[in-house]
Amino acid sequence: MSARKLVRTAYRGLLIAFFGLVTAHVALDLGHPVWWDFLPLLLAYVLLVAGNRWGGAPDGPRAAREAVEVEPPVTGRWIAMNSPADHTPSHHTHAYGQTFAIDIVAEPEPGSRPAFRALWPAARRNADFPAFGAPLHAVADATVVRASDRARDHLSRGSLPALAYLMLVEANVRDLCGAGRIIGNHVVLDLGDGVFAAYAHLRRGSLTVREGDRVRAGQVLAQVGNSGNSTEPHLHFQLMDGPDPDTARGIPFTWRGIGVPRNNEVFEIPARRTGAPA
After folding, report:
1. Beta bridge partners of 102
2. Are 228 and 201 in contact (CB under 8 A)?
3. Which of 47, 141, 183, 214 gives 200 a disulfide partner, CB atoms 3.0 to 4.6 angstroms apart?
4. Is this prediction's pTM over 0.85?
């Protein structure tokens, strides 16, 4: 196990110990001082900061590197969100190799994607979103090194109450459970040269490939879903320097013919023959 993996595992263990101690103290009226309960929390953040300083944790930016050009992973009309073209880290954290990650949502026609609502409906069915079930394509000739599609697709988090639940409760629980719970169903491709492409939040049961398969650029890999730490059906795409999002660092990307779309930028990619060479 790498040093970065050990740091991440120990960090999660200390956070779980903190929550366990606080719960036990309240439920059992333990006699020790309350500040003892916070020792695991303090140690967790000391460990994370020390790991970042010494290169052991995955929460620091990667050394400067040229953007890697790959094919777009989708076709049709899409909108970019949380784009590294606007700021990095694009998702406000370097964790899980997502320094240069991007989220994209499908909108075949203007207004065809349900809008965010303040209160009602609190959540929507995935079928209401045009991205749900959209095919995802290999961005290069590659080898599948990770593939998982057993997690369920949950309802959208498209209202203030649902978003508050996601940010305050669900996201923290998922983070404690590891990268797999954050990215949900996913596939990771080894593009060679130490570059790996990750597709997150895939639809349950939609994978068309398995670990060890060789794929061609443009080949369909899976479908867009709403699994993991996700507000609505969308694709979370990123390049990273290792196959494990828990320890990898992000690598900048650019899509051939598109570049890196900015936040709220609409872009369209024409369909091309499945499996066609890049």
Report:
1. 237
2. yes
3. 183
4. no
